[in-house]
Design goal:
The complex is a heterodimer of chains A (114) and B (111). Chain A has 114 residues and is mainly β. Chain A contains no helices and 12 strands. In chain A, the strands form 3 sheets. In chain A, strands 2, 5, 6, 10, 11 and 12 form a 6-stranded mixed sheet that branches. Chain A is globular. Chain B has 111 residues and is mainly beta. Chain B is built from no helices and 11 strands. Classes of the chains: A mainly beta (114), B mainly beta (111). Chains A and B meet through strand 5, strand 6, strand 10 and strand 11 of A and strand 4, strand 5 and strand 9 of B.
Chain lengths: 114, 111
């Protein structure tokens, strides 16, 4: 069964600084996507970024980027120039068994301090 | 605007009572999902459906039931067999692997 591990239950960062959230996963698939979702205090889940596993280039969306290490099955999220609005739970996710179902990690609670 | 709507936002259940959580989408997505969120547990899959009139159990289906009579609708019933139903419930839909659109959730509390 696919598993997703986020080893940092909580993190904090000062506004304008950079923070990296870790994620490791286990899958038997060769072609798949990986995802980071954000859940702010409103509890509305929002897609942050996704990575195609067959692409070597790391995905980037504005201040958000990933460090994807396929052989190590590692998929970390880097947030640059942190903003107060980045305060949220962040969930890493990968598809289960080649299907559209996602398996989520337990989340990292990120707090951005002024 | 297209989106996914969950109702109610808050729901209270008495012991031994069945309750139904609503999930409606107008995104024309084939796949729909129900997840349960508990503190420190992340999101766990209850049921999912990839097509009308078909659905499959997820990892924690015991005590829950669903139906998928219309593409737009995927209601979740929490039955009296679910002994610890207090949680936050999220519905999602997708048309592409893992690219989910989530509803705003329902907070269910046993009273």
């Amino acid at each position: 069964a696919q598993t997703v591990t986020q080893s940092q239950p909580e993190m904090s960062v000062q506004e304008a600084e950079t923070v990296t959230l870790s994620c490791t996963y286990d899958t038997s698939e060769n072609n798949y996507y990986l995802f980071w979702y954000k859940q702010p205090p409103s509890r509305q889940m929002i897609l942050v970024i996704r990575q195609e596993a067959y692409k070597q280039q790391n995905a980037t969306e504005n201040r958000f980027s990933v460090n994807f290490q396929k052989a190590a099955k590692s998929f970390s999220l880097k947030i640059s120039d942190s903003q107060l609005g980045d305060t949220a739970m962040y969930f890493c996710a990968c598809p289960q068994g080649g299907s559209e179902k996602l398996v989520f990690g337990k989340g990292t609670k990120l707090t951005v301090n002024p | 605007d297209g989106g996914i709507t969950q109702s109610p936002k808050y729901l209270f259940r008495k012991e031994g009572q069945n309750v139904t959580l609503s999930c409606e989408q107008n995104l024309n997505h084939d796949a729909m999902y129900w997840y349960r969120q508990d503190p420190g547990q992340g999101l766990r899959l209850i049921y999912y459906s990839q097509i009308v009139n078909d659905f499959q159990k997820g990892d924690i289906a015991e005590g829950y039931s669903v139906s998928r009579e219309k593409k737009e609708s995927f209601p979740l019933t929490v039955t009296s067999a679910q002994k610890n139903p207090t949680a936050f419930y999220l519905c999602a839909s997708s048309f592409l692997q893992g690219l989910y659109t989530f509803g705003s959730g329902t907070r269910l509390t046993v009273v």
